[in-house]
Design a protein that fits this description.
alpha/beta, 8-stranded mixed sheet, binds S-adenosylmethionine
Length: about 280
């Protein structure tokens, strides 16, 4: 897939509840996930390699969104393999089904809560969740559910980012630090990236492999969509963390940097893969 930079408007509020947000902004959420999957393409490709799906395998994709990863998994496991994508959003599952219906022997998409996965124990050869744990009320419960439904010696994989490891180049380090800390705090589990490797070990997974991949963005509009900089800078001003003037100057500087080809932002994505005992 070729990388392309898009400038679709309407950012996602970082302290959203997906269920509420989806109902009100289903089209935007779908276009957001499409745009994000372009920028996370290399991470996703690397995650499939680490997952090592075999032909005929049975795979679970938790928080499958519009189903892109489930369809890719289906392609990898072939006609004899089976893939199930679950998501608690009815809108996401409807969109995933709509997109996949032209794919021969497409994945099965089911509305289901990550904290209570409605499948028997030891069902799947592999279970994965991509950028889902950061949003959950209790990531450990959902992770234990993924382990439960995975067969012994099967593979469990989490892909997620760490919102505490975001870098944005700016002349004003103090304001940048405050706004980025604010973004991290608005995500339910902003530090999930660094917590996942520990979770794997605490839950007894074996052969745990941790990969950390950088994402770099040199276009302010793209960073704004993927990080919600404008929106959260506004929240930070509303909450008195920075002043309205500081927010305006900070965003103006980022825009000016962009216009002069001097914008830069980066963060880290973690891919953690392990085997159930
Ligand atoms: C950032 S999106 C990632 C979607 C997809 N994994 C991808 O890589 O494009 C997070 C997804 O998790 C789903 N989600 C959030 N909380 C959930 C929960 N408690 N149970 C199941 N799905 C959930 C959302 O509806 C959304 O589709």
């Amino acid at each position: 897939m070729e990388r392309k930079e898009t400038d679709t408007p309407a950012p996602i509020c970082p302290d959203f509840s997906w269920a509420t947000w989806m109902r009100e902004h289903a089209n935007t959420a779908v276009s957001y996930l499409e745009m994000a999957s372009v920028h996370f393409h290399d991470v996703k490709a690397r995650s499939y390699r680490a997952l090592g799906l075999k032909r005929g395998a049975v795979v679970l994709d938790v928080g499958c969104g519009v189903g892109q990863d489930a369809c890719e998994s289906k392609r990898l496991v072939g006609v004899r393999g089976r893939v199930v994508g679950i998501d608690y959003s009815e809108e996401m599952i409807a969109e995933a089904r709509r997109r996949a219906k032209d794919v021969s022997s497409f994945p099965k998409f089911v509305v289901c809560e990550a904290h209570h996965i409605g499948f028997s124990s030891d069902t799947f050869d592999a279970s994965r969740a991509d950028r889902v744990l950061q949003h959950l009320a209790d990531p450990r419960v959902a992770f234990e559910e993924m382990v439960r439904v995975t067969k012994p010696a099967g593979t469990v994989q989490i892909v997620d980012r760490d919102w505490g490891l975001v870098a944005v180049e700016s002349n004003d380090q103090a304001v940048t630090r405050k706004i980025l800390d604010h973004i991290c705090g608005k995500i339910r589990n902003g530090w999930i990236g660094r917590r996942v490797p520990v979770l794997f070990r605490e839950c007894g997974l074996q052969e745990v492999r941790v990969e950390a991949l950088p994402i770099t963005v040199q276009d302010f509009r793209v960073a704004d969509r993927l990080l919600d900089l404008t929106l959260v800078a506004g929240h930070a001003a509303d909450e008195g963390i920075v002043s309205p003037d500081e927010t305006r100057s900070w965003l103006l500087e980022l825009q000016e940097r962009n216009d002069a080809g001097r914008f830069f932002a980066a963060w880290v994505m973690f891919i953690v893969t392990g085997k159930k005992r």
